[in-house]
Automatic annotation (TrEMBL):
Pathway: Cofactor biosynthesis; coenzyme A biosynthesis; CoA from (R)-pantothenate: step 3/5; Cofactor biosynthesis; coenzyme A biosynthesis; CoA from (R)-pantothenate: step 2/5
Family listed: In the C-terminal section; belongs to the PPC synthetase family.
Region (Phosphopantothenate--cysteine ligase), start-end ranges: 190-405
Domain Flavoprotein as annotated: residue spans: 4-172
UniProt keyword annotation of Transmembrane present: no
Annotated keywords: Decarboxylase, Flavoprotein, FMN, Ligase, Lyase, Magnesium, Metal-binding, Multifunctional enzyme
Residue numbers spanned by region Phosphopantothenoylcysteine decarboxylase: 1-189
The protein's name: Coenzyme A biosynthesis bifunctional protein CoaBC
Job description of the protein: Catalyzes two steps in the biosynthesis of coenzyme A. In the first step cysteine is conjugated to 4'-phosphopantothenate to form 4-phosphopantothenoylcysteine, in the latter compound is decarboxylated to form 4'-phosphopantotheine. Catalyzes two sequential steps in the biosynthesis of coenzyme A. In the first step cysteine is conjugated to 4'-phosphopantothenate to form 4-phosphopantothenoylcysteine. In the second step the latter compound is decarboxylated to form 4'-phosphopantotheine.
An individual GO BP term: pantothenate catabolic process
Length: 405
């Protein structure tokens, strides 16, 4: 099925990055109509947009007026994506102004609308911009949080356009949800952990695990697409930052614990998708440990790391917060995967536990996942094998049900 995408481009210097976003849509087989503003063409010209989309572009309602483009483009779209969305464009959209083809299209669109803001930090933080963003989100639009990083000139801060690849993935998630693509997490603050921690033996060696961070990043991306303010605590993950998400990077389990505990103080939900190392060396060598001439191996003494999930579940910063844990199990002589999962759910005292059967290394590094979501009230939701994004949305659905309770 061909998806009709309207790609609106407003007049910010980040417009050049949107060529990559356009390419991703077209190479995925989507039908893309680019609608730039007049100022956007000062940064990237019409021939570029036409060549990449395979269609002519226009900025004014007077072009091919017999086709009534100011109405038809929005009416026929499956999704509208505006990138970059400048402060001026957000203000016009929030107030219903329609002085060019893009703003007219926004008024006629009845499909999901995604804004990817990009501007200087001061402009993003200005009360007028924040009020406009709140208005658009209240109406159901997806307005991403801009990324932190280098801006125009030597400036750095919040206001950078999110990675085009991540905007693309988020839009695909919005399209997959279709009629269910609501902003049901709007106004909620959520914390997600992802990846695997490292416990250093010496300056070059560490104890670690095989967690890729893909599921945690899918959870963060899904929450952002549903309107949440997302803090992602990322342990040794090399993936691009999810669009609209604040990322805190850590390495060790203690660092992960400190970052998660700090972020949970005001969180409505915490999803611990990271795989913390259970043990760490009691001592870390300042120099690289050398091989012994006699072939012997050094003895490494280990001690337990903090149990982050149990800590934030038992000592909750907010009594009404929903806490979700993950259990990667293989089953053994003491019980099956689900039996071990239920025991862990009771021991950790979290509200939900996502149980993965990782026998044979399944799940790690894969784009797909399957799981059973166990609840403290005895409920169990089986999620068949599918994308990690699909599982992420099921988890957020279950979290929302606990909010309602």
């Amino acid at each position: 099925m061909t998806v009709r995408v309207v790609l609106g481009v407003s007049g910010g210097i980040a417009a050049y990055k949107v060529c990559e976003l356009l390419r991703r849509f077209t190479e995925s087989g989507h039908d893309v109509t680019v609608v730039p503003t007049a100022s956007a063409l000062e940064f990237v010209g019409a021939p570029t947009w036409s060549a990449l989309s395979g269609k002519p572009v226009a900025t004014e309602v007077w072009t091919r007026v017999h086709e009534v483009p100011h109405v038809r483009i929005g009416q026929s779209a499956d999704v509208v994506v505006v990138a970059p969305a400048t402060a001026d464009l957000l203000a016009k959209a929030a107030h219903g102004l329609a002085d060019d083809l893009l703003t007219n299209t926004l008024l006629t669109a009845r499909c999901p609308v995604v804004f990817a803001p990009a501007m200087h930090t001061e402009m993003w933080e200005h009360p007028a911009t924040q009020a406009n963003v709140a208005t658009l989100r209240r109406r159901g639009a997806v307005v991403l949080e801009p990324a932190d990083g280098r801006l125009t000139g030597a400036d750095t801060g919040k206001g950078r356009l999110p990675d085009p690849a991540e905007i693309f993935e988020l839009v695909l998630g919005v399209l997959d949800r279709g009629a269910d693509a609501s902003q049901d997490l709007a106004g909620r603050k959520v914390v997600v952990s992802a990846g695997g921690t490292r416990e250093y033996l010496d300056p070059v060696r560490f104890l670690g695990n095989r967690s890729s961070g893909l599921q945690g990043y899918a959870l963060a991306r899904a929450a952002a697409s549903r309107g949440a303010h997302v803090t992602l605590v990322s342990a040794n993950v090399t993936l691009p930052d999810p669009a609209g998400v604040s990322v805190v990077r850590v390495e060790t389990t203690q660092q992960l614990r400190d970052a998660v505990v700090a972020a949970t103080a005001t969180a409505d939900a915490v999803v611990m998708a990271a795989a913390p190392a259970d043990f760490r060396p009691t001592a870390v060598s300042d120099a690289k440990i050398k091989k012994a001439d006699d072939g012997s191996a050094p003895a490494i003494e280990l001690e337990q790391n903090p149990d982050i999930l149990a800590e934030i579940s038992h000592d909750r910063a907010r009594e009404d917060a929903v806490i979700v844990g993950f259990a990667a199990e293989t089953g053994d002589a003491t019980g099956s995967v689900l039996e071990l999962g239920r025991a862990k759910l009771a021991r950790k005292a979290c509200d939900l536990l996502v149980v993965n059967d990782v026998s044979g290394g399944a799940v790690f590094g894969s784009a797909d996942n399957e799981a059973v979501v166990l609840a403290a009230d005895g409920a169990a939701v089986e999620v068949p094998r599918g994308s990690k994004t699909a599982l992420a949305h099921v988890i957020w659905d279950e979290v929302l049900r606990r909010f309602a309770d």
